[in-house]
Amino acid sequence: MRKCSLICLLLFCVLAGKAQVKKQVLMNVYATNAGLAALDGDEALRKAQLVTSNGATIEYDLAKKEIRLRIHLPEKHDLFYIDKVEKDSNGNTVYQCTGAAQQGKVEIVAFQSGDVILAAIDRGVIFMISNKSKLEMLEGE
Question: What pTM did the predictor assign?
Fold first, then answer.
């Protein structure tokens, strides 16, 4: 009986650890200028360039306080350390992060709808990752 309890406890611990990792795959990755976005968000979205339509995987590991972003093609991996997590007034989750590869401060916004993620990097670039086309995102504004 004791062995059974220990096995169940071990299984529960493993499952609890995996429950803190959320993985999301979105197909379109766009890039735009952060300075332009600060002046006019719609104009920045209109001028956004498609980086790839081959997808990106975003993995949130809250136990390790890390976010991993992997762009599928061209293959690129980024690791961000989570400094702070909060909800904005619209219910979106905002992750204040520090880039592991000298990206500086990074703000990642995961929209509550789950279909758009913004990654604003201190170096002046905003990445938009979504299953939506640019036109669909503009119409949603």
Answer: 0.80
